[in-house]
Amino acid sequence: MSRRRSYDQYCSAARALDVVGDRWTLLIVRELLAGPRRYTDLHADLPGVSTDVLASRLKDMERDGLATRRRLPPPGAASVYEVTDRGRELLPVLQALGEWGQAELGERRPTDAVRAHWFALPLLRALEGEEGLVEVRLDEGVFHLFVGAGDGPVYGDGAAPAEPDARLALDVATCTALAQGEWGLRDAVRAGRIDVTGDGTLAKALREA
Amino acid sequence: MSRRRSYDQYCSAARALDVVGDRWTLLIVRELLAGPRRYTDLHADLPGVSTDVLASRLKDMERDGLATRRRLPPPGAASVYEVTDRGRELLPVLQALGEWGQAELGERRPTDAVRAHWFALPLLRALEGEEGLVEVRLDEGVFHLFVGAGDGPVYGDGAAPAEPDARLALDVATCTALAQGEWGLRDAVRAGRIDVTGDGTLAKALREA
DNA sequence: CGGCATCCGTGACGATACTG
DNA sequence: CAGTATCGTCACGGATGCCG
Predict the structure, then answer these.
(1) Is the full-model pTM beyond 0.85?
(2) Which residue of A17, A51, A60, B115 is surrounded by the most CB atoms within 10 Å?
(3) CA of A3: how far to CAs of A49, A60, B46, in Å?
(4) CA-only gyration radius of chain B, Å
């Protein structure tokens, strides 16, 4: 458990950084926004974080009300970490960081790890104004978005937990172009960069664009 | 000069944190958003940062295109650091952090430093929708806001560089209440928590509310 | 005096090994 | 599986010194 090293400034941004400014913390929040995760899963999806730092961060986040730990009912006897409402309120911070970081993203470097759900935030933004459960299929994996949902989970790893209102299949390059505003969502559909399937209102609306 | 320690993730938020995730970096950006600053001024307004870390961060920020260094014409022979356009684009990140951090702010601790312009970001948000040059007077000092300005500087330390469209005098508690949405701007004026002076359209509009 | 560079002690970080 | 223990390295914070 790390000692609290505060900036000691009466400034709300500095206070926020006191809590989430440590290395890895915001990226752990990003992982937990995709749904409850076990320690090992977190460790696997955050290459480079050492086991003790991850354990320490999770303790800090529990203490600070960003995450909770829940024991799963047997069998399994594992425990999962979940983001709290307070932690979920960090979504705008991650959104702002992600939008700024788009310009730094560039080409994928050989040393870069990739996970499908890392594209959930930019896609959520590209789908702003729409509504419904959307399943997204990339080469790197599948995740789903709760578009327009006020609170509760905003996205999750893996296939949609129910019949989605639309299924999108696209590649990372299209994701990036959408995130940078080079393409509009409907432009990309029209250009054949996104394959839209499904019977929901949203799917039909996107196809007929 | 610190070695670049990257997260090595193909994710725009992680890339952003590669650049601005180091300790002090975002707070230096916050300082530079208030206008060009000399090294010594930065060091004075960031209590706790050591001289070498500040120098190292400024170099990193120059290399990363967040800030530039400019030599002042003699006499003085000093140099100032200025935020670049790219650096100024971090404003939404600081806004999001600041809004989240409001809930953590609480009472001022005895160890907390305070500077007047640290309240510029929350006040800018409270003045959203308005327009003009606003001078703000707190007990802790004076700063000014370029409300509704698309690009260029958004706020500055000290008195307004020209005749402001409105002058506001208020205290920190009112700032906090505005930032947390407990009060609307016009409510606070009506309740006498903000003293509005000046002849500009904005001043009149706020007074007659 | 402003703008760092250097040195030093402490602590955070990352890798690996190990344990309940 | 879910961490804890250990250890080498590096970053941070504080003080001081140098140099224009």
Answers:
(1) yes
(2) A17
(3) 19, 10, 21
(4) 18
Instruction: Take residue A15 and report the two structure tokens written for it.
Output: 């206070």
3-class DSSP state for residue A194?
coil
Cβ contacts of residue B113 below 8 Å, gap of 6+?
A: A8, A9, A10, B47
Residues in chain B: 209
Express each pLDDT in B118-135 by its tens digit: 999 999 999 988 999 999
**Omega before B75 within 30 of 0, i.e. cis:** yes
User: For the sheet containing A37-38, what is the strand order?
Assistant: A37-38, A79-83, A67-71
β-pairing, B37-38 vs B79-83, is: antiparallel
Percent helix / strand / coil, chain B, rounded to 5: 40, 20, 40
Four-residue CA torsion sign, A46, A52, A58, A64: negative
Residue where the block lists tokens 């024991």: A71
Picking from A20, A27, A179, the nearest residue to B7 by CB comes out as A27
Are B97 and A8 inside 8 Å of each other by CB? no
User: Do the beta carbons of residue A157 and residue A119 sit within 8 Å?
Assistant: no
Strand ordering across the sheet containing B79-83? B37-38, B79-83, B67-71
Quick one: CA dihedral B176, B178, B179, B182, positive or negative? positive
Rounded, the Å distance between the CA of B50 and C1' of C8 is: 14
Which two structure tokens, joined as six digits, stand for B136? 């703000």
Query: Which domains are seen in chain A, by residue range?
Result: 12-89 (1.10.10.10), 113-208 (3.30.1050.10)
From the list B16, B105, B113, which residue is nearest A101 (CB)? B16
Tell me the mean pLDDT in the region B24-46.
Answer: 95
CA B177 – CA A46 distance, rounded (Å): 38
Which residue shows structure tokens 């000069």? B1
Are residues B66 and B88 in contact, defined by beta-carbon separation less than 8 angstroms? no
B39 φ, ψ (degrees, to nearest 5): -55, -45
Question: Does the beta-carbon distance from B12 to A179 stay under 8 Å?
Answer: yes
